[in-house]
User: Which sequence fits this backbone?
């Protein structure tokens, strides 16, 4: 019994360390994306949700480590409840991620910004520097509008031909969204697998501790 409890404790601690690392990675990536996302867009909202989930994952992993170290029945079951909540949230997020066309959403958001380039000058500038792109389809968009190519269409804002961004921002934004979807799904599925493993180990530990306490009473 003691060996089984020690084994489950070790497994839980390892799983919770993994959970915390994945959670911190999710938060770090989300914060990085948040700084360059446009407030109010679908991408911005999704990033905020990811930060919330990542924070909840980290806090839950801390609870799991503490519960494992103390072998407290109350803490273990509290941890199990948190994992169940997290799993439900995670399953919903994965289902939403698979059913949502993030590339189409990113295209729609960008076109809405590009519809009024003068009013959204700063936001377009941020996008062009972030994705190393220029205009909607290319730098010639500015020429067609009768405007000069802005400095934000150049690397480091240096107006030299070799530093000019030739790719259009519409394509760049969609490519970035595609990459984000792939990376996001990998992290989400990893989280789900680790959470299920932690739930199984925690439940087993809780049952083991409960049975031990019952035997001690009688």
Assistant:
């Amino acid at each position: 019994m003691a060996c089984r409890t020690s084994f489950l404790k070790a497994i839980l601690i390892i799983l919770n360390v993994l959970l915390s690392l994945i959670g911190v990675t999710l938060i770090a990536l989300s914060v990085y994306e948040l700084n360059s996302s446009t407030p109010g867009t679908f991408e911005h909202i999704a990033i905020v949700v990811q930060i919330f989930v990542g924070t909840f994952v980290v806090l839950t992993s801390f609870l799991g480590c503490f519960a494992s170290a103390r072998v407290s029945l109350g803490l273990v079951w509290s941890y199990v409840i948190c994992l169940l909540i997290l799993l439900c949230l995670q399953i919903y997020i994965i289902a939403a991620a698979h059913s949502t066309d993030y590339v189409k959403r990113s295209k729609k958001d960008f076109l809405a910004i590009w519809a009024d380039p003068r009013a959204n000058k700063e936001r377009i500038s941020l996008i062009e520097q972030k994705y190393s792109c220029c205009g909607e389809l290319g730098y010639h968009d500015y020429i067609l509008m009768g405007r000069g190519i802005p400095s934000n269409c150049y690397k480091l804002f240096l107006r030299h031909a070799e530093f000019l961004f030739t790719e259009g921002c519409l394509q760049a934004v969609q490519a970035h969204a595609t990459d984000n979807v792939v990376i996001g799904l990998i992290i989400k599925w990893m989280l789900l697998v680790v959470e299920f493993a932690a739930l199984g180990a925690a439940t087993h530990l809780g049952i083991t501790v409960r049975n031990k306490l019952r035997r001690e009473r009688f």
About this structure: The mean pLDDT is 85. The CA atoms of residues 25 and 54 lie 8 Å apart. The chain is about 80% helix and 0% strand.
